[in-house]
Amino acid sequence: MKHLFIVLLAFFSISGYSQIKIIHLDSGKLQEKRELYVSLPASYEKNPTKRYPLLILMDGDYLLNPFLGTLNYGAHWDDLPEVIVVGISQGQNNKRSIDCGLDEVTGMPDGKSVDFFDFISLELIPFIQHDYRTTNFKIIAGHDITAAFSNFFLYKDNPLFNAYICLSPELPVNMEDELPDLLTSIKQPIFYYLSTADGDNKKMQERIKKFDSKTQAIKNPNLNYKFENFNDVSHYSLVLHSIPTALYQIFAAAQPISVLEYDTKIVTLKEGYVDYLKNKYDLIENSFGIKNPIRITDFKAIEAAIIENKDYNELDALAILADKSYPKSMLGDYELATMFEKKGDNPRAVRYYMSGFNKEEIADLTKDMMFAKAEELKKTFAKKPKIKGKVGQDVEAKQEVIEETPASDIPVSEEKKQ
Fold it and tell me: Is the per-residue pLDDT at 1 higher than 80?
């Protein structure tokens, strides 16, 4: 099973992302050319204006494919956003030990490791941001000594990265005490994932758990923290167990509306269903810099909550949002038609079903369906019955005749004014 999982990760890393580019970046800080692995999302060339979060991988030699596998699997189901991934090669000539070497007394970067820190912050990040379309949301990940080294970016007043994935970090002296204090007073939103396993060195485990205990007690609303302790897992297989949880923790807000979110956060609202949807996508854009159209499934979830709570007037606001997100589609007309149908105003429901018939199909909304709904509702219109008058005569009853209103593009809000 373990081998099958690794094969699946490799499949998704190859099929979902574009071919990995190997780049040699000339570093003035390191006085050498540094090998990088750059992997761009499959949609990168197709969407020339779209920007993507940035994931920097230390130990890129062996962390790249596991991360790409998870990202591709998540993107396939629209659970995870596409990300630009840059792996730093550290596997040759003991580079990772030199890059992350620390002073034995202070536990701080010293000599070459200071240069490596500056290489990432002053050369690598600016280079990637200049040459590739990235958002301002940045993640850094590492394993054992590189994981511990990534924490030093949190020692700055304005941390360079927004999210930290620390896989079995080999914590330097005093870090388990110093870092929780820093996280307590952090003033910008930070995601932090930490993991350890039975297969880790025992002293290392104890210090990680001490760090976790102190961090769990932090009440800072800017800190989004998660810890995992794996049983019967080695120091190396921990990587495959940790990566999915870490990425799903960081990008939880960007996921489609789930059954759990619907049941606990949406359908329980007394009002403001459309505002909830707007706020969700504002949060995605403000947190990750990702500007995506609202998912059709999310529209349908909000529609279902509105109908379940019989707050039919909110479908008007949902229709306005649909027209803004998908102006050429029939979605907005469908929401208005549904609103009038639920309110018992079948003539106007027919009007918007037929208006939608003339627009583009979207998801499971089709021209055949819109036409069929309109025809079905037309059967409910009142007809003029004949009643007997004087002997030998049939006289039509005087009653209101409901006529079909031709389709119109006038919004409901404007229609009401008239």
Answer: no
